[in-house]
Write a structure and sequence with these properties.
- With 958 residues, the chain is of the alpha/beta class.
- α3 runs antiparallel to α4 and α12 crosses α15.
- It has three domains: 343 residues, no CATH class; 193 residues, Alpha-Beta Barrel (Anaerobic Ribonucleotide-triphosphate Reductase Large Chain); 160 residues, no CATH class.
- 40% of the residues lie in helices and 14% in strands.
Length: 958
């Protein structure tokens, strides 16, 4: 622990400290005082059983945090026993618990020149977390500042040798890591194969046999009460004599699942019979070498080598072995592929050992017995109102976050002594980002386009360049990492490789050119400062899945992923749910030059169909901007691969991502993905073919047999018609007198017992006049439509801003100007009968709300306004479309109003509980995703894992 001692000594000497800049905060104002807080009730149920699985009432969050974000933070991250005073009940408590621990350690270990710098760092870190600009990985929120061990890392790599002591220790170490809710990976290639002899003369068991024991251990710990499934990665080198058995392990188990399912056993994920199947708790990957891949290209033989002596004990046809990898992946999505020589060519510490394995999601790749803590930036927070990327702010935030992440290593605890020593000596960090897919769409870039890849490459380059620049600056204050001297030349060589890759980026627009220019400057600083100071961290960046923390930041997309779908499922405050068109779409359409009426028609089409194909007025060349991971225009497999390839040269680690292929994909298609992944310089790749895993989707235990032709009943034709809901004979009504441009009239609005508008009458003009008759007919038509279920917001959207005489000043303080009678009437109805979020999204506010906006920068109602049932997604999408600034976080409605408010919000069937199930409805087929074992919701992909939209649980990622 030499580094710790040196840092403390430097702190006592009063070191100069790292540079702390003001980014978001206002001098003399605490970040908490700039936002409006509200109390919420968090009640979570398993929709399948109806059981309440969590309940905490009166929790405190900023009003711009979505219901989903506050629910996940409350259930996952608040510490203390429920129902006691020790239980956290406010986001303030959670952020303070973490931030104040970081600041205290920063002071103790000499990171700050003085107390003023420490206070400024505290406020900037607090502001950024409060406004969802970035988030630390889950273990930080679980553990930091509690009485539990201060575990800050989500990713672990273990080591196992060819001895029984080491193998049993592997089981134990994995168990402790799983118990804490984290995951680990390791390489089993040191273990002798089943084709080699033991010293006693017998035959070795081989690594696959020991995998069974580890899998059973992981399954037992999972079922013993962990918050999520055990997550693990098992790697085997392609030249191991047992490689063929390893490749086929999970494919053969998939055959077993099919047979047991067809026999009537419950083989769903989490089903009572699935435990009889082996190897289901791990991701498997084959570590391939350049030698092997060249042998595949050339059709040559390839040697499998004994573990003890290294001699070739068997020759195999390289192409046949490669085909077995591809066929197994086609059958069950395992194994993945890791490219060994590429990984180690970018290794900053080769003198300390090779990189042999990864964490479960394949983004962290470093020395054996090491760990990495992660943090991810919300990219959409850096997109300003004028659709430019805030480059200086992005770079400053990266530098601040890297500083905090490095401080965490000073006070962190680790599950084993070996992991603790390696982590402290090499200080591996994993900064990354989320919401890339949403950023590309909002700026009019297709995920599969050259422009999209150029923008992603520039952002990733600036991310890592800024991170290593700050790492070199910290090294000048607190010293370089302990293993740096031994690896200095190799580390500097990798920095030059990153710089050279940055020079190869070809920008196509103003946005990516500006970001690339800053990245070029950052890499020049990295080289210069590194020569002078060395580096504080052996590793700086990865692209993680950002599952749970993505929900915490209200991100539309996770990690490097494209948008999951154009139509999303959202829960409402107070219960219920809605289907909502992704609010990035109107912004993208506006960026592409479409006008209000065009945007409205396109969004309406998306709401009805789930895709943009044949959308009225949408140019076909713009279709690519709206391509998603699922749906009618799903991104092609090579589109995923090329995006990864664009970003990979600018990452210390790798990328957690699964390349999705359609069910019709062939083994040859998968072979092409694996081959191109190698040629394009990826470090790892995983694929998933639709419907290849029968144990994951929810399905009947046994497929129902189709009846014989003679038994088929005549098809029943069911006609669906709207049902009129008539008002009661005695109903509540409110009459409002008004004057528009000097012309007077009366508006009478009647409601149902639940206060929903069901009837209106307009009196305008002299009795018996043509105008009065038209108004009566109009009133009846609207009233009947309301009773048949047409939403009021549809009428508000259609008739507000309609221009004709009389127009001008009104006598209503809430609607001071009206462009016509219709404009006034439906603005008044919106104020009286629509919730705050819905009308706010249309730009309709009361006089009091406008006054509040002038005072606080936010239209948002306070608790006293008693606004209930508001739609949480509007504040979420509004917040995510605003660039960070020192202003209040809620974006003004006018910035995102598209003229498409009603078309993108509609009720969904009670049978739908997630975006994955919503896409099933649009596509007419089941989505290949597991069910959440906590709340029963169908999960959706996040990197190479899955995440639940209902409760934030993940299948192994953090």
């Amino acid at each position: 622990m030499t580094e710790t001692t040196n840092a403390r000594a430097k702190a006592r000497r009063g070191g100069k400290g790292v540079k702390v800049e003001r980014i978001f905060t206002t001098p003399g104002v605490h970040p908490y005082d700039e936002v409006t807080w509200e109390r919420r009730d968090v009640v979570q149920q398993n929709w399948k059983t109806g059981e309440t699985i969590f309940e905490q009432r009166g929790v405190e969050f900023p009003d711009f945090w979505s219901l989903n974000a506050s629910t996940i933070v409350t259930t996952k991250y608040f510490r203390g026993a429920l129902g006691t005073d020790a239980r956290e009940s406010s986001l303030k408590q959670l952020i303070d618990r973490v931030v104040l621990t970081y600041v205290k350690a920063g002071k103790e270990f000499g990171y700050f020149a003085n107390d003023d710098d420490a206070t400024l760092f505290e406020h900037e870190l607090t502001w950024s977390l409060l406004h969802q600009v970035f988030s630390f990985n889950s273990p930080v929120w679980f553990n930091v500042g509690t009485k539990s061990p201060q575990q800050v890392s989500a990713c672990f790599i273990l080591a196992v040798d060819d001895s029984m002591d080491s193998i049993l220790n592997w089981y134990k170490e994995e168990g402790f890591i799983f118990k804490g809710g984290s995951g680990a990976g390791l390489n089993l290639s040191r273990i002798r194969s089943s084709k080699e002899l033991l010293s006693s003369g017998g035959t070795a068991s081989g690594p696959v046999s020991f995998m069974r024991g580890a899998d059973a251990s992981a399954g037992t710990i999972k079922s013993g009460g962990a918050t999520r499934r055990a997550a693990k990665m098992v790697v085997l080198d392609v030249d191991h004599p047992d490689i063929e058995e390893f490749i086929e392990t999970k494919a053969r188990e998939e055959d077993k699942i099919r047979a047991l399912r067809d026999a009537g056993f419950d083989m769903d994920l989490g089903g009572k019979d699935i435990t009889s199947v082996q190897y289901q708790n791990a991701n498997n990957s084959v570590r391939v070498s350049d030698e092997f891949m060249r042998a595949v290209e050339e059709g040559k033989q390839f040697g499998l080598r004994a573990r003890g002596t290294g001699e070739v004990i068997e020759q195999v046809d390289a192409r046949e072995l490669f085909d077995k990898i591809n066929k197994a992946a086609w059958e069950c999505a395992d194994p993945g592929v890791q490219y060994d020589d590429t990984i180690n060519a970018w290794h900053t510490n080769p003198e300390s050992g090779r990189i042999t394995a990864s964490n479960p999601c394949s983004e962290y790749m470093s020395l054996d017995n090491s760990s990495c803590n992660l943090a991810s930036l919300n990219l959409l927070k850096f997109l300003k109102e004028d659709d430019t990327f805030d480059v200086p702010t992005f770079q400053k935030v990266v530098e601040m976050v890297i500083t905090a992440m490095d401080i965490s290593i000073c006070f962190a605890d680790f599950p084993t002594e070996a992991i603790g020593k390696t982590t402290v000596d090499y200080r591996q960090l994993g900064i990354g980002y989320a919401n890339l897919g949403a950023l590309l769409m909002a700026t009019g870039h297709g995920y599969e386009s050259e422009g999209g890849r150029s923008l992603a490459a520039a952002i990733t380059s600036l991310l890592t360049g800024a991170a290593y620049k700050r790492s070199a600056e910290i090294a000048g204050v607190a010293g370089s990492y302990a293993g740096y001297a031994r690896n200095a030349e190799a580390h500097k060589k990798v920095m030059r490789k990153h710089q050279a890759a940055n020079d190869q980026v070809r920008t196509l627009g103003t946005m990516d050119a500006d970001i690339h220019r800053a990245a070029t400057k950052a890499w020049a600083d990295v080289i210069e400062l590194g020569e002078k100071n060395g580096y504080r961290n052996a590793q700086a960046s990865v692209l993680a899945p950002t599952g749970t923390i993505g929900f915490m930041m209200d991100c539309d997309t996770t990690g490097i992923e494209p948008d999951f779908s154009l139509v999303k499922f959202k829960k409402l405050v107070g219960g219920g749910s809605m289907q909502i068109v992704n609010q990035t779409i109107p912004r993208a359409l506006k960026k592409l030059g479409y006008q209000g009426e065009q945007i409205e028609a396109i969004v309406e089409h998306i709401a009805n169909n789930g895709h943009v194909v044949d959308a009225p007025g949408l140019k076909t060349e713009h279709y690519e901007v709206f391509d998603c991971a699922m749906g009618e225009r799903a991104i092609s497999p090579m589109g995923h691969v090329r995006m990864m390839a664009a970003c990979q040269p600018f990452l210390s680690g790798a990328i957690s991502k699964t390349v999705n292929l359609p069910e019709t994909a062939t083994v040859e298609d998968i072979a092409e993905v694996h081959m191109q992944g190698w040629k394009l310089g990826l470090k790892a790749i995983a694929i998933y073919r639709d419907n290849c895993k029968v144990g994951q989707p929810l399905s009947d235990a046994k497929a129902k047999e189709k009846p014989a032709a003679a038994e088929v009943e005549p098809e029943k034709v069911i006609e669906y018609r709207p049902v009129r809901r008539r008002l009661p004979k005695r109903r509540s009504s409110q009459t409002t007198s008004f004057a528009v441009g000097g012309a007077e009239g009366y508006l009478t609005a009647s409601t149902y017992d639940d206060d929903q508008l069901g009837e209106l009458f307009l009196k305008f003009g002299k009795q018996g006049s043509t105008l009065a008759g038209v108004m009566d007919a109009f009133s009846i038509a609207v009233s009947v439509a309301l009773q048949y279920g047409v939403p009021l917001e549809t009428y508000v959207e259609k008739f507000t801003n309609m221009r004709f005489e009389p127009a001008g000043m009104t006598d209503d303080p809430d609607v001071r100007m009206a462009q016509s009678i219709m404009d006034y009437v439906f603005r008044r109805l919106a104020l009286d009968h629509l919730d705050f979020e819905t009308r706010s999204f249309m730009g309709i506010h009361s006089a009091e709300e406008r006054s509040r906006q002038l005072e606080t920068g936010s239209y948002a109602p306070t608790e006293q306004d008693d606004v209930e049932g508001e739609l949480e997604n509007f504040s979420q999408s509004a917040a995510t479309s605003q660039a960070p600034s020192s202003q209040a976080p809620r974006v003004q409605a006018e910035q995102v109003v598209s003229g498409a408010g009603a078309a993108d919000v509609r009720e969904v069937s009670a049978e739908i509980h997630s975006s994955a199930e919503l896409m099933e409805k649009f596509q007419g087929k089941a989505a290949d995703a597991p069910m959440c074992m906590t709340c029963g919701t169908k999960m959706r992909p996040a990197g190479s894992c899955y995440v639940c939209e209902g409760c934030g649980s993940t299948s192994g990622c953090s």
